[in-house]
Specification:
It is built from five helices and no strands. Helix 1 crosses helix 5, helix 2 runs antiparallel to helix 3 and helix 3 runs antiparallel to helix 5. It starts with a helix and ends with a helix.
Amino acid sequence: MDAKQIQKNYPSIDPAYQISLATQENDIKGRDAMESKIQGILTFGMTATLALPAFATARGIVLNSNWFYCAIACFLIAGALGVYARLEGVIMLLDPQKLHADGWLRKTEAQFKADIIYSIGEFHEENRKSLLRKSRLLTASTIFFLLEAGFLAAWMVKAAGKAAAP
């Protein structure tokens, strides 16, 4: 198709091109936001996990408890899921060097824009799937951190009950 035919068949190619570029920027921002959430939950979970046992042992509470062991198991699973979520997937972006090497620069402006729109659309779908996987891993990690908190609370309550018993 020549430039005039593309412009005739796709009269809204210019706004669609701008929307495609904005979509790629939004993909980057969405991934950055998800990375930040994952890092936040990992930092909070690890801080709480390390602080509470230190606090408890300073108060004479023993670590030898099934509640404590379950909490540590949940902590390890949550941490592993969080780290995997951080490492999982890569963001798909247009590579300017590839545009040059693959002859995109010889295309008419209209054909170039049409192909960019198509490519960004394909990348956006992959980026959306990757973000969804990260989100699911973050949710699973958060659930295990919450389970850990419950086990730690049960451990502290049981230990406090033993300390209060005559």
